Amino acid sequence: MNLILQRLHNQHLSGMPFATPEEVVGWFGAVQAQDFLGSLWAIGMRAKNATEASVEQAIAERKIIRTWPMRSTLHFVSPEDVRWMLKLLTPRVIARSQARYRQLELDDTVFTRSSRLFEKALRDGKQLARSALYEVLNAAGVSTSESRGLHILARLAQDGVICFGPRSGKQQTFVLLDEWVAPAMQIERETALAKLAERYFNSHGPATLHDFVWWSGLTVGEARTGLELVKTRLVEDRVNGKSYWAPLDAQSQKQSAIAHLLPPYDEYTIGYKDRSSLIDPAHAKLLDPVRSIFSSTILSNGRIMGGWKRTFEKEAVVVAHKLFARLKPADERALGGALRQYGRFLDLPIVVKTNGESRR
User: Quick one: CA dihedral 206, 88, 166, 181, positive or negative?
Assistant: First the structure.
């Protein structure tokens, strides 16, 4: 088993890209989206000819939905999946939040009242930014101070009352989920567990049961049930006493040099409990100790070889990057291709800064 090559293939970082942003999200089941602009690129880099505008258009057309379905973290999910995922995954998140709710004096009475206020403010297709919703709450005597507002928004999203709509300028908006997404038939719990397990191991495999537990937020028992229901449609490899599960058509062909500019919290880095394969131990100490492996990283042949950040100036995007070691010529050319892809995604010229020197 070649863990790196198979993951690159199954994460669609190599091979054939998807045709549309919604196909990307449907394949993964959920794409982490707490860093909004980064998550647009996470989807775009896996879709053919995608641009930042085309991914945002998919949001506006309700083809992908941004909400809090798992691990208290924002994700993009498909509209047909949003309700069964919320039902399956959010009860444990809500239960773990009870101590924080008590600290903030948030109880069922507050959440029920907030829900009614939002249903009135957002009815008939209205789209309001967070600040406007906070004004609605504060005007009704529901304080949003000390992060109460954010906890109310997240909880009502987890309850299926609201979700994110399209951006208005630079502001994220919220909408009523029942108005934004067409009704869908609820599925049985075991069916939901099986569906989530199959999505995860197909898109993230080879991966272990405990990787799936980390990604989904399920208990070990729940995750094992899901895996048991679908394992005949997966292939198992045992490495150092651990079972890794992957699609039956698992790919591991050797290929030419390949590079990627990964955004923060990309599924390739965030989607596993064990991330030891992602970086050479000699390079791990060179990662920013604050942002670490979840920051914007440069991937060369499936392994982290540096970090990058972007800024904008004079109608161009400036990408400053720092590598842990000098790349081979073929790998340098691959990185150049990844930079050009990012420029096409933003529809802007790329200016590359390496060690303070700029080049286009």
Answer: positive
Residue 39 · residue 31 · CB < 8 Å: yes
pTM: 0.94
Closest CA to 66 of 34, 28, 26, 27: 34
CA–CA distance, 233 with 200 (Å, rounded to integer)? 13
C-alpha distance from residue 4 to each of 1, 92, 138 (Å):
9, 32, 50
What is the separation of C-alpha 156 from the centre of its chain, rounded to a whole number of angstroms? Answer: 20
Q: Where are the domains of the chain?
A: 3-180, 189-247, 259-359
pLDDT, tens digit, 9 for 90 and up, residues 216-248: 999 999 999 999 999 999 999 999 899 999 999
**What is the helix (H) or strand (E) element at residue 85, kind and residue range?**
helix 82-96
Q: Which CATH number among 3.40.50.620, 1.10.600.10, 3.40.50.360, 1.10.10.10 corresponds to the domain 189-247?
A: 1.10.10.10
315, 308 in Cβ contact below 8 A? no
